[in-house]
Design brief:
alpha/beta; Rossmann fold; six-stranded parallel β-sheet; 12 helices
């Protein structure tokens, strides 16, 4: 089997590609930084060549919530690029299309990131292809990328941590489980055309997650709760001056509303055994 993968240089991609190769799945990667932006029409020929002969597309490349983005930018990367890949995949006779979305797509009043992901989901599911949409919660794991790394860096550097205060809970998911869910989505025959929540088994709020990180690292930290409306205003202010602020408005919007999740389809249909948070943090933060 051969799969075409976008976003392979990202946090999840750097874990996914070796896993696919280990399982004897041939991989054709598209690395936007070196091969060209998916939204650029000049790369269409090269993109089509890279997709030729593939049995499935795994689309992870996105304008994420880690960096501030305007509505137009998020739409171009997250919606238009997805539309292009769907069109090319159909023209090449590729059957399976796996779209890695986000829990942010389920928020009632999403930011630019969540709104663009939701529109891209609709394109994928209405394409007529053998489509699977995966909605991971906050992904954590070893490595130097991803929003989780931001959290770890703050815990490591600051003895006193101002944190956005919210009782909203979520279920962080270990990167290895996300990799397993993506792989199963690409290779399992006769999956229903549907969305899957890709989440961990443990429900925590943001403060509990950061405390768990501090505990796993062996740090004693003092936390100052910041009301969410003030935290969002602060994030907007930081975005005016910093290209990569410690937290973005989309990050905070994602923490402001609890999204209902059902872990059973991931377990029963994708055959993913979710990693407990304590075990996943130990794997993620070991020296």
């Amino acid at each position: 089997m051969k799969v075409f993968v976008t976003g392979s240089s990202g946090f999840v991609g750097r874990n996914l590609v070796p896993h696919l190769l280990k399982n004897k799945i041939e991989v054709s990667e598209w690395k936007g930084r070196s091969q060209g932006d998916l939204t650029d029409s000049k790369i269409d020929g090269a993109l089509k060549n890279a997709m030729s002969g593939c049995d499935a597309v795994i689309h992870m490349a996105a304008k994420t919530s880690e960096d501030p983005s305007g509505q137009a930018e998020a739409a171009a990367v997250n919606i238009e690029a997805t539309k292009k890949l769907l069109t090319l995949a159909q023209s090449l006779g590729i059957k399976r299309f796996v779209f890695v979305s986000s829990q942010s797509a389920k928020i009632t009043n999403p930011g630019n990131y969540g709104a663009s992901k939701k529109k891209a989901e609709n394109l994928v599911l209405s394409s007529g292809m053998d489509a699977v949409v995966l909605r991971p919660a906050i992904i954590y794991g070893p490595g130097n990328a991803g929003i989780f790394k931001k959290f770890v860096g703050l815990v490591e550097k600051l003895p006193i941590l101002p944190l956005p205060y919210t009782n909203v809970t979520f279920q962080p998911v270990y990167v290895g489980d996300v990799v397993s869910a993506i792989t199963s989505s690409a290779i399992t025959e006769k999956l229903p055309r549907r969305e899957y929540d890709v989440v961990g088994p443990d429900e925590v709020n943001f403060l509990q997650l950061i405390k768990a990180v501090a505990k796993a690292k062996g740090f004693s930290r003092f936390f100052i709760p910041i009301p969410m409306p003030i935290a969002i205003l602060g994030a907007k202010f930081l975005a005016l001056f910093l290209k990569k602020p410690p937290v973005t408005v989309d990050n905070l919007i994602g923490l402001s509303e609890k999204t209902p999740v059902d872990i059973r389809p991931m377990v029963n249909e994708l055959k993913v055994s979710p990693t407990p948070l304590a075990e996943g943090l130990a794997l993620s933060l070991k020296p």
